[in-house]
Design a protein that fits this description.
This protein has about 160 residues and is α/β, with parallel strands linked by helices. It is built from two helices and eight strands, in the order αββββββαββ.
């Protein structure tokens, strides 16, 4: 642990010496939080469409948290967040994202609530590539896997 802390301090000091910090790509230290996957098709077969309801969503730094509910209890369910590889032009731009849910064919009926989290830094990188600006705002419109309308609208991602 001490070596990891020293490594992080060295990296931070090296970043302070960079003349143009916009060239530094931030790599998440938290490897337990899955990255949002950027795609050109939110309706591809990769996006699993099993029922889940999103109650609320909020963002802290580069991590989005979602309070969700779904039926199950006998098998481990998996979730992934997908975002389109372009933004809707508005001020600020908007990103369409969908929560993918794979129930693993769990037939149990217990209602489960959970808080999911995903790292949004790939959206920040995409924003930088599209707008040539290192900082900005995106409004996220989040869809449930089985829905065609937005479940949670205009979640502000400021970076």
């Amino acid at each position: 642990m001490k070596r990891l802390n020293i490594f992080i301090i060295i990296i931070l000091l090296l970043n302070l010496n960079c003349e143009d910090s916009s060239d530094v790509q931030i790599i998440p230290i938290d490897t337990q939080t899955p990255l949002v996957k950027i795609t050109n098709d939110l309706y591809s077969s990769d996006v699993m469409r099993h029922d889940v309801s999103i109650d609320t969503a909020w963002i802290v730094v580069d991590t989005i948290y979602m309070r969700v509910g779904y039926s199950g209890g006998c098998k481990e369910h998996t979730f992934q967040l997908y975002a389109l590889n372009y933004f809707a032009e508005s001020n600020p731009p908007q990103a369409e994202v969908v929560l993918s849910h794979n129930s693993q064919n769990d037939r149990c009926r217990q209602f489960i609530t959970d808080t999911l989290r995903f790292n949004l830094s790939p959206l920040r990188v995409l924003y930088k590539q599209m707008y040539s600006r290192p900082t900005g705002n995106l409004l996220l419109n989040i869809y449930e896997p089985q829905a065609t309308t937005v479940a949670v609208q205009n979640v502000n991602y400021h970076f």
